[in-house]
């Protein structure tokens, strides 16, 4: 058979791509990320709620609630929609805990909640712990004792939850709004 071999080496020149059109910015830009203004601290916060409790001047609020048997945490928007939630009622969390309402449960719930917040793209939240203050009692002294007892018992749980959230990478205060 015949065999053909080329002995000349020639470099093919590639056609150069015109990159000057990449520098042109479109005059009409559509932002498809609705939370982009929140992350840039340019989005509006509802400011007409100064006299109400709890305040509603936030983009995302982290609520930490303790019920009789469980501990729950929610991230909600200012309109009341729950965006992310975690609870020791969930079997995936409860099966790893000795008690679903102790300090260790609060710490682990903070870890899980921080991971879920970061997965949802929520890096900044306004933190509010809901503490049950209402107790029906005739004696003022007993009422004061109950309030102090509840405060001391819940304070350690709240601090561990807060610490776990911050160690998970979530900032527990929102940036100040930039006015333009």
TrEMBL record:
<dbReference type="GO" id="GO:0008097">
    <property type="term" value="F:5S rRNA binding"/>
</dbReference>
<keyword id="KW-0689">Ribosomal protein</keyword>
<dbReference type="InterPro" id="IPR005484">
    <property type="entry name" value="Ribosomal_uL18_bac/plant/anim"/>
</dbReference>
<protein>
    <recommendedName>
        <fullName>Large ribosomal subunit protein uL18m</fullName>
    </recommendedName>
</protein>
<dbReference type="GO" id="GO:0005743">
    <property type="term" value="C:mitochondrial inner membrane"/>
</dbReference>
<comment type="function">
    <text>Together with thiosulfate sulfurtransferase (TST), acts as a mitochondrial import factor for the cytosolic 5S rRNA. The precursor form shows RNA chaperone activity; is able to fold the 5S rRNA into an import-competent conformation that is recognized by rhodanese (TST). Both the cytoplasmic and mitochondrial forms are able to bind to the helix IV-loop D in the gamma domain of the 5S rRNA.</text>
</comment>
<comment type="similarity">
    <text>Belongs to the universal ribosomal protein uL18 family.</text>
</comment>
<dbReference type="GO" id="GO:1990904">
    <property type="term" value="C:ribonucleoprotein complex"/>
</dbReference>
<dbReference type="GO" id="GO:0005840">
    <property type="term" value="C:ribosome"/>
</dbReference>
<keyword id="KW-0496">Mitochondrion</keyword>
<keyword id="KW-0687">Ribonucleoprotein</keyword>
<dbReference type="GO" id="GO:0003735">
    <property type="term" value="F:structural constituent of ribosome"/>
</dbReference>
<dbReference type="InterPro" id="IPR036967">
    <property type="entry name" value="Ribosomal_uS11_sf"/>
</dbReference>
<dbReference type="GO" id="GO:0006412">
    <property type="term" value="P:translation"/>
</dbReference>
<dbReference type="InterPro" id="IPR057268">
    <property type="entry name" value="Ribosomal_L18"/>
</dbReference>
């Amino acid at each position: 058979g015949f065999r053909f071999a080329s002995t000349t080496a020639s470099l093919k020149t590639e056609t150069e791509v015109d990159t000057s059109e990449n520098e042109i910015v479109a005059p009409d830009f559509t932002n498809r990320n609705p939370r982009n203004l929140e992350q840039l601290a340019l989005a509006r916060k509802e400011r007409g709620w100064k006299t109400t409790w709890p305040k509603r001047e936030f983009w995302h609020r982290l609520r930490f609630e303790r019920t009789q048997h469980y501990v729950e945490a929610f991230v909600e928007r200012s309109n009341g929609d729950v965006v992310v939630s975690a609870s020791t009622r969930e079997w995936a969390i409860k099966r790893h805990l000795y008690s679903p309402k102790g300090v260790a449960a609060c710490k682990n719930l903070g870890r899980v909640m921080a991971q879920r917040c970061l997965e949802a793209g929520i890096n900044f939240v306004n933190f509010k712990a809901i503490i049950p203050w209402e107790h029906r009692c005739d004696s003022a002294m007993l009422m004061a004792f109950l309030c102090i007892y509840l405060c001391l018992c819940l304070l350690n749980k709240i601090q561990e939850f807060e610490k776990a959230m911050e160690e998970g990478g979530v900032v527990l205060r929102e940036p100040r709004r930039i006015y333009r």
